[in-house]
Amino acid sequence: MTRCVEDAALLMRVLSQPDERDSMSLPFERIEWDDFDRGTDWLRGLKIGLLLDAGCGLAVQAEVSRAVTQAAQLLVQAGAQVQAMPPFLTPTMLDGMDHAWRMRSHLDLSALKPERKAMVLPYIRDWADSAAQLSGPLTFIAMSQFHATRMASVKACAPFDFVISPTSPVVAFAADLPSPTNNPLRPLEHIAFTVPYNMSEQPAASINCGYTAQGLPIGLQIAGRRFDDLGVLQLARAFEELRGPQRSWPQPA
Fold first, then answer.
1. Per the domain annotation, does 115 fall within a domain?
2. Domain of 158?
3. In the chain, how many domains are there?
4. What is the model's pTM?
5. For a Cys staple, 192 with which of 57, 112, 116, 251, CB 3.0–4.6 Å?
């Protein structure tokens, strides 16, 4: 959402403000977003988990794996203790959440008038309506995977100050595709690294850590413990200082 960590910290000044319309909001905590830059000395002794296998979803492309591994080596050189992590997300968890979202969307689409529903992207209609025959018990089992994912994520990350991983197992796919698989029955195979933190409410940031041979950027995901939003930005800023020079942003044609 921003081109540098400093701009992300500025953005968070606004995004983190309380909104009484949010019934699920926590009590407001004032965070010193201006303290995002701590340099790199504080990395010494930091415990960082390295997750290169999400446990399900699409396989990690070789260029992505190499770039994230090189990012981990930069952190090691700065004094951090980086330890490989086993995968903790399972196909049952990812499929369950997918099926629960399908049912929710199926009900939403069913409430639309036919002419309105016809305006929805066919891929989305096919995805949502595939849940039409899902029974109540199966829907409940699917919904339970949100909490199962949350529990697994918190447990796996507990030994570490931060966890790093690919943001996505694949680089940017064709802009006209709704998902990398282009298959409404397997639509979420690319989110296995990010969805655990959405469910566990752990803050995470994505920062460029390299480029493919074709020049596409590769995202490094930095996830922190719950409520350590500032710590995530601080580590992202430290990595920003450690990584090599960045290529110029594409200019409009």
1. no
2. 37-89+145-242
3. 1
4. 0.94
5. 57
Residue 177: inside a domain, yes or no? Answer: yes
Long-range pairs, 104-108, Cβ under 8 A, ≥24 = 105/131, 106/130, 106/131, 106/132
User: Among all chains, which residue has been given the structure tokens 């949100």?
Assistant: 146
- Tens place of pLDDT for every residue, the chain, 253 residues? 999 999 999 999 999 999 989 998 889 999 999 999 999 999 999 999 999 999 999 999 999 999 999 999 999 999 999 999 999 999 999 999 999 999 999 999 999 999 999 999 999 999 999 999 999 999 999 999 999 999 999 999 999 999 999 999 999 999 999 999 999 999 999 999 999 999 999 999 999 999 999 999 999 999 999 999 999 999 999 999 999 899 998 888 7
Alpha-carbon distance 60 to 168, whole Å?
Answer: 8
